[in-house]
UniProtKB/TrEMBL annotation:
One of its GO terms (biological process) is DNA-templated transcription initiation. Residues 109-156 form the RNA polymerase sigma-70 region domain. Residues 160-210 are annotated as: Disordered. This is RNA polymerase sigma-70 region 4 domain-containing protein. InterPro entries: RNA_pol_sigma70_r4 (IPR007630), RNA_pol_sigma_r3/r4-like (IPR013324), WH-like_DNA-bd_sf (IPR036388). Coiled coil: none annotated. Pfam families: Sigma70_r4.
Length: 210
């Protein structure tokens, strides 16, 4: 009996490891989109994913045909949604600071609220239907549609602003050292060497006979 239970546990572990190897990358990207962190530094997204994977592993034996990816994503979304109210206050504070200091390094996804970001990621990145998104988040269907459209519109406007923003011109090349003119402007020095003879204005001109 113990051997059978141990063999079943090893089988579950192998199945779970195979699932993580195939799905962890996409799930981490989904979590990173939700937290609006940069891909190279996303500790909060990693924490959300680790907690969701641990929950999936704890219930692995009871999935009974349920898609483990959907199960993990639902847990991931639920954990992010529980902190959406706190994240909204932090988002409002960051928005005010960004407006005051006009930071140029704001990530595009930071310009939308956490709830708008959540709906947009589920609908557009994960491809979850509106009805399923509304049921999972406990929101009316029209509210889901409004949040998604608003997020897309704001991101589009941010993209247009970034494209129309004037670029900084490169610095002008420094003039070579030399003498300065009467107004202090640098005068380029001539290279050393033989110079072309200049015509003498006082020399008589040759007269060509008719």
């Amino acid at each position: 009996m113990r051997e059978r239970e141990a063999a079943r546990r090893r089988c579950h572990e192998a199945e779970f490891e195979a699932f993580v190897a195939g799905a962890a990358g996409r799930l981490l990207h989904t979590a990173t989109l939700l937290t609006a962190e940069p891909a190279a530094a996303n500790p909060r997204a990693q924490q959300l994913l680790a907690a969701a994977l641990a929950s999936t592993y704890a219930h692995w034996a009871g999935l009974r045909g349920e898609d483990p990816y959907d199960r993990t994503r639902q847990d991931l979304v639920a954990r992010f949604a529980r902190g959406a109210w706190r994240d909204w206050h932090l988002w409002r504070l960051r928005q005010r600071l960004h407006l005051l200091h006009r930071r140029p390094d704001v990530a595009p996804l930071e310009t939308v609220t956490p709830r708008e970001r959540l709906v947009m990621v589920l609908r557009l990145y994960e491809g979850v239907a509106e009805e399923q998104t509304a049921a999972q988040l406990g929101l009316p269907l029209q509210r889901v549609r409004t949040l998604c459209n608003r997020a897309v519109s704001q991101l589009y406007e941010a993209h247009l602003d970034a494209r129309t923003k004037p670029r900084q011109s490169p610095p002008e090349p420094q003039q070579p050292h030399g003498t300065r003119g009467p107004r202090g402007n640098p005068v380029a020095s001539h290279p050393k060497g033989p110079q072309d003879p200049q015509p003498d204005a006082r020399a008589p001109r040759a007269v060509v006979a008719p």
